[in-house]
Specification:
The structure is a single chain. This protein has about 325 residues and is mainly α. Among the domains are: about 80 residues; about 130 residues, Intergrase catalytic core (hpI Integrase, Chain A). About 50% of the residues lie in helices and about 5% in strands. It is built from 13 helices and 5 strands. The protein has a 3-stranded antiparallel β-sheet. Strands 3-4 form a two-stranded antiparallel ribbon. Strand 3 and strand 4 form a beta hairpin. The chain is elongated, with a radius of gyration of 26 Å.
Length: about 325
């Protein structure tokens, strides 16, 4: 014996249980591969909804009842169901990591009753409406509308598109970047969220012709963004919507149309042109065709008439 008592692991005081506020700070530092814009959004949800309720509570005192009351009160306040579910999901996700860190024996927030997100059918434009909107929007955004509606790029992908990624001869666009917001709220560019998001998208000849003429007419260089704000800065979805998009939709008789509805329109047109769900998913940047079918299943069902007409024509040629 050396005269010094050795600590007994069974009697050594355990690590103090952190408050949820303390744990959120540590949990945030432990997150890996999360975009700055996502961290910014999640911290906003934490500050607005989670901290006022749970901030001073030690995490071992958060129980199912208190978490379910939290969800019910948020839902009863009129908050959007998607935001309520996101707040509950962040609470559950953070406590999952607390369990894995040995701070909790189990996560008490699993199995919460959550509000349902109302189903909203996507809005689809027909070609005449696309052209009407493209003609109504301020220059140089006519081609923004056409590429959105006939190539299906997301707004962030349109805002990050550079001239060098437009292959006029091949009639394709390489999607390799998207515009997001950094932790400080400033625009930043990075790769798409998933491997499937990095893709080559075919573009109809008439759209590529207009896009090529637009690029050459404005004298853009290979590294230039195809579309920017009037001041030459990267497009901000909020500013673009309020300063340019809304007026164009009203002028075209399409008030209420969202920028994302151009993407919905494109996938619907692919379907009606008899593209398979697998091809549509690949061009849209989804890893699984099921994701496309879940949203656009009704549209893909519409192709049955065209398929039967083609089958009839084929059968008659053999008679």
């Amino acid at each position: 014996m050396d005269g010094h008592a050795r600590p007994d692991p069974l009697t050594t005081p355990s690590e103090p249980v952190p408050t949820f506020r303390e744990w959120w700070t540590e949990f945030t530092l432990m997150r890996v591969g999360v975009r700055p814009s996502t961290l910014r959004r999640d911290n906003s949800i934490y500050n607005c909804h989670l901290d006022p309720v749970f901030g001073h509570t030690t995490i071992d005192q958060i129980g199912f009842r208190s978490a379910q009351r939290f969800v019910a009160e948020l839902a009863g306040s009129g908050l959007a169901p998607r935001t309520v579910r996101k707040a509950a999901g962040l609470l559950a996700q953070s406590l999952d990591i607390a369990v894995r860190s040995g701070l909790l024996a189990q996560n008490p927030t699993r199995g919460l009753a959550l509000p349902q997100i109302p189903h909203k059918e996507p809005s689809f434009l027909d070609p005449e409406e696309v052209d009407r909107l493209a003609s109504a929007i301020a220059e140089p955004y006519r081609t923004f509308v056409l590429v959105g509606a006939y190539a299906g790029l997301r707004h962030g992908e349109l805002a990050a598109l550079r001239v060098e990624r437009v292959d006029i001869a091949a009639r394709t666009i390489d999607v390799v970047e998207t515009r997001t917001l950094g932790a400080d709220g400033a625009p930043t560019f990075g790769p798409p969220k998933s491997r499937a998001g990095r893709r080559t998208v075919p573009v109809p000849p008439f759209v590529m012709q207009e896009l090529g003429d637009d690029i050459s007419g404005r004298g853009l260089e290979p590294r230039d963004l195809v579309w920017t704000s009037a001041w030459g800065s990267p497009l901000s979805e909020g500013n673009f919507r309020s300063r340019t998009w809304r007026a164009a939709t009203i002028a075209a008789g399409l008030e209420g149309l969202r920028i994302h509805d151009l993407r919905h329109t494109c996938i619907a047109m692919w379907s009606r042109s008899l593209a398979s769900p697998r091809a549509a998913a690949k061009w849209a940047g989804h890893s699984n065709p099921t994701l496309v079918l879940n949203v656009y299943g009704g549209v893909f069902d519409d192709e049955s008439t065209a398929v039967m007409d083609r089958l009839t024509s084929y059968a008659r040629r053999g008679q």
